[in-house]
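Q: Sequence in, structure out?
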Amino acid sequence: MARTFTLLTLVNRARKRVDMENDDSISLSEWKEMVSEMYAELHAVIVETGARVFEATQNLTAGSTALPADHLSTIGVDYVYDTTADKRRALDELMVQERNELRGLTGESQFYAHEGANIVLYPTPIAGQTYKHLYVPIPTDYSASADGTAIDVVTPHGDQFIIWGVTMLACHKVERDPRDAERHFEKYREKVTEWGVLRFLHATRRQVVRDPRYIDPASYRR
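A: Exactly. Output:
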């Protein structure tokens, strides 16, 4: 189950940490901005561990498609060769040195590449083929959200990561000593990072070596 707290709950707990429950020198909107900043930092820490917590899918049916507006980074691209059973084959990423090898060819795509704001498939897929782009979305911006908005802090220590991070920012804002908050924030950063690395307790990482499936361009000539 998700570990969720309302936006206002996180704000109020941070206020308590810095002893500012009845102090309006920092506005509610600014408290929300700080929570949003720390949520984005939590998102980044978890993503950097490799834990697949934040993930979205984009359908690709053309040779070149604009990246989603919320695209942060690409996990991979799959060719769905059996849509009924959702059977897939992973595409390889085309290196920049190979950019002209399959240009202008049509067939079952074997590679993908990021080109500017687009994701491009090589060779250009035939009409009717389906490809899935798996990607990490950018974190949600909660700075203008309603008080009761639910925020999933993901890990057992995610709320403390956000609360102490906000406390640290608040201390800097009102010119109080932030060192205690900084120590707590770093403590919970380590715990969140450890959670991300050890999310799968019994599955160690292994090296994957895969044939890049280079194609003879002549096989696509008509």
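The CA atoms of residues 17 and 167 lie 6 Å apart.
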